[in-house]
Design a protein that fits this description.
By secondary structure, this protein is mostly helical. It contains 64 helices and seven strands. A hairpin with a 7-residue loop joins strand 2 and strand 3. The protein starts with a helix and ends with a helix.
Length: 1407
């Protein structure tokens, strides 16, 4: 340390106190160097060290006489006449004086030597003393005391010389030159504290103290802990008001304690009026103590009302301080108690009345401001209000606020910049105390633009600040606007202040500050720190406005948001900074220039070559954060790409350089990169890889990989990198995505490097490496969750080939999955529940990775490890039972919270505080859904929020986190089981397939156990049902689906549950149910029943029961009742209201279920009851009505698909005789003959080639039904059938004569129709009596048709040329080829066979 000190002062000596070689620097730089030289020297002299000999550090330079000699030769001799070094000379004088006192033994317990009179008489200092005091040639015991005393006098001489050179003035200039820094202020404060015992406190010295310590509260607090500083303040207080300025100036640094100090003043120093003798001496012995014999007016009354004076009553005692012989003036300090704040307010009022506001009044206003500020910082809001009351107590008609604002208007007009600044600061502080006084004033003040006339804001800036190069007023205005914005947020629900006034005031200030931000970097500054202060504070303000506006309630228009008063200001900012025009370059120049300069390590605002200091780093960080905020807001608003984003793409190499050079900016840089690629893009998104180029893309990946690898990187930065990685994978940045995943540059360029580090590999290695570490070094749950999310997204892309050997990673993933199974669901702490949420989410990510591994590489080692794990200890079933369940949801908490909150604040319900997509990923925990930060701001003044609702919102957010993490795990597990089904099916793993039967059952049973009425779980319920169907369907394809009676019963119970609302939702489009299409009640009904119908179908088809037991028949009866009858009626009703393809699907599923149910043994016992149910429910009439009017219910034009489906459904029932009888009695044949659809067929000439749907209805429906009725009821319905034949005679005749045309086209459908018609005619003729036979229409005879058939059969090549495909089945047959020949299709052969069969049938029946 001493070597460093000597080397430094050698430099001081060699350069004549840093004056040699300074010519190459600018005058400003020279001043900075001089100033820093003083501070470095002061710091090396260690003025705060212990000077006592017995406790002095052995390493102190005071222990080295040779060092003292060297220092004195420089500081005590060579710079003694150098004014610029006077602070250093003063400091050295204090060091010598303290050293002399130490030698004398003062301030210690050392006993003086009897010979020398000194406590310390070590001769090692003799040479030093002789050189300092040359008159002493030798020092011995006889003169040692004199020498030490002379040393003290020598130091006093140096101090006097320093004061003559203006040491304190130079010290103040020093701090004017240098930026405000805590370390500088601490060094200056040490010199000041050292000097206090030796100087009288004057106004000039007080201002130096204020200049140095006031910017830093910690320095101020430390300063007044010193006994001499405290004494200086006390003495200054005693001189009030005759010498009030030092007290006011020091008081500005004293903090909140000044409030009490001034409130309880106990003395008043006065110069007695000339000739005043109305006092007596208290005692003859003490002639300095006096007592008033009459009242004494200390402060004049107001002329207007005669009030406001300060009068001392008779009997008040005081003490005579001094009497000036020349003037005869007598100074007395009266002992009286009074409130100093009231006195100060009275001074301000009188000065206002006299029109004499000057420096004293500014000091008073500064004291008020500083005291208010410190009171508010300590949350002493009541005392702050009391302070204003004290100040107003002695005033006349107006209070202190009115007085100051009136003077402030005068200051605006007179361009009094100091008073303007102090007044604006007062308004800023007043907002926290009484905002109702500030907003109306600002609404009417001439400071802002009014009625198209510019305000004083612009005038003062242009005419005063820019001219003087001093922008304290603008900085004060920015602070005022920031306070206004915060108050506007806090009073969003307060109607006592007009929201229109608040919105207008904020928008006008914002417009002005946008203009300031566009220009401030071009101004000259006498105080360079003001430039960076404006930059930081302005961007912070803009960020606050924009973020507060868009952070929540994204769906509500701006003017209706909770924070609507910020809407106009926010729009001004976004319109300016998110403009697409090139003109935005001026507005954005500071931000973009900061990025460019930071990349080059230049001064971000002046373009100098200096490295960035702390404040500049803060500004760059804020600029980057503001940029990413703006980009995300553009995506929220879905605006076109802005000029800012285009420039950010262009400057992406600069962002990489900033990441490389500045550790503190890592998070901000990655956040910007993520925002520009993860946003909304109406057009094609630019390629970030193309903008980065080869060099910078490699550099970026290297930097990101290094950050992920090192343990020194902040967790927040790693989280940002993971989010960035995930965003790239999900975006359209394919080239960059491949580079991140594989390290390979796929671009067609000669500059590319073949491979770099793969970020995916780095992530996997970090996860693998840290998983087994101790709890102290293990990855935080939030970080592990983000990493695994990135890895899972990477594995899910097709960019990666089949999974490599990930055995170690899989082991880690399995451990995470096992850990989530063991989480404690009974934890009550919000912190622990949040951590549990992350653990469950981590398991969900791990499961997703495993499912991808299984899908891409089912035989790989990773997949095998997980399959082996699941095959052990019945883990598949155990984990399925756990991972398909969602526990812990508290519906009463959320329901009661919403109801009570909305009742308390009806104009701003809880839904208005839902967080938006402005935040990339909502973290689990207290901020998950409801924006707690915004709620805290908006409701901070509401006691019921702080003491009650806040805790409930936190619990709700934490509970939703916990539930949502489980829902994510359900989704992942369902995805994994889907992959597992496919893998087991392809590998033929019967053991696994058998277990999957239980998985499907668990998926259904889990839904039955849930509260199905909660909308929150609808997505998960449907996901489980999708899983159950997928598993069941794939098992049925492999003949491994073996549902039990219990599983069938469970599925039916779930379908019949009222919460499923099957009967009300059946037939409705899923898009309508989801609210995507208009419907009766969009979004109100679930769509679970569709999958349940499919599952029911599969279970009925594959159920492992040969005979129908009683329990099974009960279930079948329920299915027929609820699904086949009541469900069918609901479907038909829904179709008639809104025909959709969903209705088609439902009818098909119900018909299939009906067919399978009727096929069970033992169902015949239910026939009678089922028939009654059909009649009682009106299902039969509903289905027949659906058939009748199906032409009006076409989904596709002229395609009455519902008519065909209705007949197919009825046909299933006709296999039951009692049902056939019931349907005939219900008018089935009448519907078949007299409905609108029937008449469309009765016109005839309905062919499979021209009217395929009507033809299908005719052949597969009508004819089949009539034949089935004849089979069931026989001659009882012959008359009705003959009527049917007469109605359809035209169609029948055209179908039979069809064969007589040699050019006819032939299909299997035509052959089937002909067969059915002749069969029907034959049956009717056999059952009919002679009278009935006579009314049967004559049709083409069989002989003619036989002849035609013979012709086709004898000319099979020609027959093949007349074939036509009319159904999907025929198309399939057309494409098939028989194994024995290649020339003829299977279809042709089948047609020939069926024609031959038809010919044989006709010939036999004709005989």
């Amino acid at each position: 340390m001493n070597a460093l000190l000597l080397r430094w002062f050698d430099i001081i000596d060699e350069t004549a106190f840093l004056s040699k070689g300074m010519e190459k620097f600018t005058p400003q730089s020279q001043q900075v160097i001089y100033s820093l030289g003083i501070l470095i020297s002061l710091e090396l002299l260690r003025l705060d060290q212990d000077f006592a000999m017995e406790s002095m550090s052995q390493y102190s330079y005071l222990q080295k006489p040779d060092v003292l000699v060297k220092l004195n030769s420089i500081l005590g001799v060579k710079i003694v006449d150098y004014g610029a070094a006077s602070p250093l000379l003063l400091a050295w004088s204090f060091v010598l004086h303290a050293f002399s006192l130490a030698l004398m033994g003062q301030d210690n317990d050392g006993d003086a030597d009897s010979k020398t009179g000194l406590a310390y008489n070590d001769p090692k200092y003799d040479d030093f003393l002789c050189q300092v005091l040359p008159k002493y040639k030798n020092i011995d015991d006889s003169n040692r005391l004199d020498v030490v005393e002379d040393l003290g006098m020598y130091s006093g001489g140096l101090a006097s010389q320093a004061m003559k050179l203006g040491a304190f003035t130079k010290l103040a200039e020093l701090f004017e030159t240098l930026p405000q820094k805590l370390e500088y202020a601490s060094t200056g404060a040490n010199l000041l504290l050292t000097s206090l015992p030796y100087v009288n406190m004057t106004e000039s010295i007080a201002r130096v103290i204020h200049k140095i310590i006031s910017p830093f509260k910690e320095v101020s607090e430390m300063f007044f802990l010193d006994v001499f500083a405290d004494r200086a303040l006390t003495l200054s207080k005693a001189k009030v008001p005759i010498a009030i300025s030092p007290f006011l100036i020091l008081g500005q640094c004293f903090g909140a304690d000044l409030f009490d100090l001034i409130s309880q003043m106990n003395s008043y120093m006065q110069e007695l009026p000339k000739g005043f003798r109305d006092y007596d001496f208290v005692t003859r012995e003490k002639t300095s103590q006096i007592e008033l014999t009459s009242d004494l007016l200390l402060f004049e009354h107001r002329q207007e009302d005669g009030q406001g004076g300060f009068v001392l009553p008779a009997g008040t005692r005081g003490e005579l301080i001094s009497t000036a012989a020349s003037s005869g003036a007598t100074i007395v300090m009266w002992n009286c108690d009074y409130n100093g704040w009231t006195f100060l307010g009275r001074i301000l009022e009188q000065s206002d009345l006299d029109g004499t506001w000057g420096q004293l009044e500014l000091d008073i206003l500064s004291v008020i401001n500083n005291t208010l500020e410190t009171l508010l910082e300590r949350n002493r809001l009541d005392d702050a209000g009391e302070l204003l009351n004290f100040l107003s107590a002695g005033l006349g008609q107006a209070d202190i606020v009115a007085l100051i604002t009136r003077k402030l208007e005068d200051a605006f007009y007179n361009r009094d910049i100091k008073l303007c600044t102090a007044g604006v600061k007062f308004l800023t502080l007043l907002i926290a105390v009484d905002p109702r006084r500030v907003w109306p004033y600002l609404g009417r003040t001439k400071l802002l633009e009014r009625n198209g006339r510019g305000g004083y804001l612009g005038i003062i800036l242009g005419a005063v600040e820019i001219v003087n190069n001093d922008f304290e007023f603008t900085i004060a205005v920015i602070e005022l606007v920031t306070a206004l914005v915060r108050d506007s947020l806090a009073s969003s629900l307060d109607t006592t202040i007009s929201s229109k006034v608040r919105s207008e005031v904020l928008s006008k200030f914002t417009r002005h500050l946008i203009d300031v931000f566009e220009s401030f970097s071009y101004w000259r500054y006498s105080k360079p720190e003001q430039r960076i202060s404006i930059a930081i504070s302005t961007l912070n303000l803009f960020s606050l406005i924009v973020h507060s506006t868009y952070r929540s309630d994204g769906a509500t228009p701006l003017e209706e948001k909770v924070v609507a008063t910020l809407s106009r200001a926010s729009q001004l900012i976004t319109n300016e900074f998110l403009s697409t025009a090139e003109s935005a370059a001026r507005t954005l120049s500071t931000i973009l220039g900061a990025i460019e300069s930071a990349a080059k390590s230049n001064d971000v605002l002046t373009g100098g070559t200096n490295l960035l200091d702390d404040h500049e780093l803060i500004f760059v960080n804020i600029a980057l954060q503001f940029s990413s905020l703006l980009v995300r807001v553009r995506s929220v608003l879905q605006l076109p790409c802005s000029y800012l984003e285009r420039k950010l793409y262009e400057q992406s190499p600069d962002l990489v350089l900033i990441f490389l050079r500045y550790f503190a900016l890592h998070s901000a840089v990655v956040d910007v990169l993520q925002s520009i690629i993860g946003g909304y893009w109406p057009d094609e998104q630019p390629s970030l890889l193309a903008h980065l180029g080869t060099q910078y893309s490699q550099m970026l990946i290297g930097c990101l990989g290094g950050a992920l690898t090192t343990s020194l990187e902040l967790d927040s930065t790693i989280a940002y990198i993971c989010d960035y990685f995930s965003t790239i994978i999900e975006s359209k940045q394919e080239g960059l995505s491949i580079l991140l995943l594989s390290g390979k540059d796929t671009r067609n360029t000669t500059e590319k490097v073949e491979t770099v580090v793969s970020l995916l590999t780095v992530l996997e290695e970090r996860i693998t490496r840290t998983a087994g570490e101790s709890s102290q070094t293990k990855l935080p749950s939030m970080l592990a969750d983000k990493m695994l999310n990135s890895i899972s997204l990477a594995h899910s892309t097709w960019t990666l080939n089949a999974a490599e050997d990930k055995t170690e990673l899989c082991k880690v993933l399995i451990s995470y999955i096992k850990e989530s199974l063991d989480v404690d669901e009974a934890v009550s702490s919000n912190f622990l529940l949040t951590d549990t949420s992350y653990k469950i989410s981590i398991a969900a990510r791990a499961i997703r990775i495993m499912s991808i591994q299984l899908y891409k590489s089912p035989k790989g080692p990773g997949a095998k490890a997980f399959l082996d794990f699941l095959s052990t200890d019945n883990n598949l079933i155990k984990y399925t039972k756990s991972f398909l369940v969602v526990n812990g949801f508290r519906p009463s908490l959320h329901g009661n919270l919403k109801r009570n909150f909305d009742h308390k604040w009806p104009k701003a319900p809880l839904s208005r505080y839902a967080a938006t997509a402005l935040l990339c990923n909502r973290p689990y925990g207290v901020e998950y859904l409801h924006d707690l930060g915004l709620l805290d701001i908006v409701l901070q003044n509401h006691v019921v929020w702080v003491d009650g609702y806040r805790g409930e919102v936190i619990e709700a957010n934490v509970n939703l986190s916990y539930v949502d993490s489980q829902m994510c795990r359900v989704k992942s597990w369902c995805g994994f089981l889907t992959s597992l089904v496919l893998t087991a099916s392809s590998l033929g793993d019967k053991n696994m397939l058998e277990k999957l039967n239980s998985v499907a059952a668990i998926a259904i049973e889990t839904n039955l156990d849930d509260n199905l009425s909660l909308p929150f779980f609808r997505g998960i319920i449907k996901l489980r049902l999708d899983l159950a169907f997928f598993v069941s369907y794939n098992l049925s394809k492999t003949k491994m689906h073996t549902p039990t009676e219990q599983q069938l019963t469970t599925t039916f119970q779930l379908l019949a549950d009222p919460s499923i609302e099957f009967l009300s939702a059946a037939g409705t489009s899923s898009l309508v149910l989801a609210g995507a299409e208009p419907g009766p009640e969009p979004g109100d009904s679930p769509v679970f029943y569709k999958q349940l119908l499919k599952i029911l179908n599969l279970q009925l088809e594959n159920i492992s029961v040969d005979t129908g037991g009683f329990r099974l028949i009960q279930t079948i009866h329920g299915i027929l009742d609820v699904v086949a009858i009541r469900g069918m009626k609901s479907v038909t009703n829904s179709i008639q209201e809104n025909p959709t393809t969903s209705g088609v699907e439902d009818v098909v599923q119900i018909t299939m279920i009906l067919r399978k149910c009727l096929g069970f043994h033992g169902v015949s016992s239910l026939y009678s009851n089922l028939s009654q149910l059909m009649t009682d429910t009106g299902c039969d009439q509903a289905v027949m009505s659906l058939f009748a009017y199906s032409l009006d219910l076409c989904i596709v034009e002229d395609d009455p698909v519902f008519g065909e489906l209705a007949l197919i459904y009825l046909l299933e029932w006709l296999s039951i005789d009692i049902m056939a009888d019931s349907l005939v009695l219900g008018g089935l044949l009448n519907v078949l003959t007299e409905s609108p659809l029937a008449r469309a067929i009765q016109h005839g000439v309905i062919r499979s080639t021209t009217h395929p749907r009507l033809f299908g209805i005719w052949t597969k429906g009508m004819l089949t039904i009539v034949l089935e009725l004849l089979k069931q009821l026989g001659s009882r319905i012959v008359a009705e059938v003959i009527v049917f034949l007469n109605f359809y005679s035209a169609q029948i005749e055209s179908a039979l004569r069809y064969w007589l045309d040699p050019q006819v086209v032939i299909s299997l459908s035509n052959i089937e129709e002909t067969y059915q018609l002749y069969l029907l005619l034959d049956v009717v003729k056999k059952l009919a009596d002679p009278d009935q036979t006579r009314v049967i229409p004559p049709f083409t005879d069989k002989v003619s048709v036989i002849d035609s058939l013979d012709y086709f059969l004898s000319h099979q090549r020609y027959l093949s040329s007349r074939l036509v495909v009319t159904t999907a089945e025929e198309q399939k047959l057309l494409l098939e080829r028989p194994s024995n020949e290649d020339s003829t299709s299977v279809l042709a052969g089948k047609v020939v066979d069926q024609l031959a069969d038809l010919r044989e049938f006709l010939a036999d029946s004709n005989n």
